[in-house]
Design brief:
The protein has about 140 residues and is mainly alpha-helical. Helix content is about 70%, strand content about 0%. The protein has one domain. Helix 1 packs across helix 6, helix 2 packs across helix 6 and helix 3 crosses helix 4.
């Protein structure tokens, strides 16, 4: 499966989903990237966990400094980047898992966390996973 095809289908699916439901799917590129990793649930789970932790950290920070709009968005992306980098440096492993626990990319968790701040954890995670599954299905049907 090519990344370009996955991202392209994800862009269209994300746009249509947002227009129809009013819910965000973690950013326009997120479903396309997650669709490529649906066969690696540990990485998808780590990405969602990192997004949740990122949201929590920025929420705490927002009580000390003014974060809204672009500032909040950058805080989400930068926090996710540094937390993801730290997790890779520490080499986080889960006993019994066949692979190192890593998030998908450095930016994807920050994009998901940004949407969590707009619509909540459950709606965001459900939207992200649904869209990723739709994109994966489309990729299977195209091939």
């Amino acid at each position: 499966m090519t990344i370009a095809l996955s991202i392209g289908i994800g862009l269209i699916a994300s746009f249509l989903f947002t227009e129809i439901t009013g819910l965000y799917g973690g950013g326009l590129v997120v479903p396309g990237y997650l669709a490529l990793y649906l066969d690696q649930p540990t990485r998808v789970g780590a990405t969602l966990l990192l997004a949740g932790i990122t949201y929590a950290v920025v929420w705490v920070l927002s009580h000390a400094i003014i974060l809204y709009g672009r500032r909040r968005f950058m805080a989400m992306v930068l926090t996710a980047f540094w937390l993801g980098w730290l997790a890779v440096k520490l080499g986080v492993w889960i006993p019994g898992a066949s692979q190192e626990v890593r998030a998908i990319g450095y930016i994807i968790p920050g994009l998901i966390a940004n949407d969590i701040s707009k619509q909540g954890v459950v709606r965001t995670f459900a939207s992200v996973l649904l869209l990723a599954a739709v994109v994966r299905l489309a990729l299977v049907l195209v091939r």
